[in-house]
Amino acid sequence: MKKLLIESDNFSLIVPEIDRKGPGRPPFWEIVFWWGREPLFSARAFIAAALLPEDFNISEYERIIRLNKDLPHKFNPETDERFKNFTFLDPFAGFGSFALEAKRLGLGKVIA
């Protein structure tokens, strides 16, 4: 089985950059922030990395998830045709962050 981008050495270089971008939500959300909630931008980054092959172009990955922007919560991710045949299952959806970002990435089916 082919390794995925999330399993590659390249992804470990991106993770600190994802963390550096902050929570991925507008500042006024801090008023009602639920501490167990995953930042939307992080969810988007990990979902895309879990679906793409290990040898996927890192610059293209960053473009799809909008890593190169200063405000990741301000821009929608790039919808990519390569995601449309995937199904995302999150039986304990919680706040729905991962399901929302899976749909925004263009996954064909999202079940939460």
From TrEMBL:
The keyword Nucleotidyltransferase does not apply. InterPro entries: DUF1156, SAM-dependent_MTases_sf. Pfam families: DUF1156. GO terms for molecular function: methyltransferase activity. Keywords: Methyltransferase, Transferase. Residues 33-57 form the DUF1156 domain. The keyword Transferase applies. GO terms for biological process: methylation. This is Adenine-specific DNA methylase. The lineage of its organism: Archaea, Thermoproteota, Thermoprotei, Sulfolobales, Sulfolobaceae.
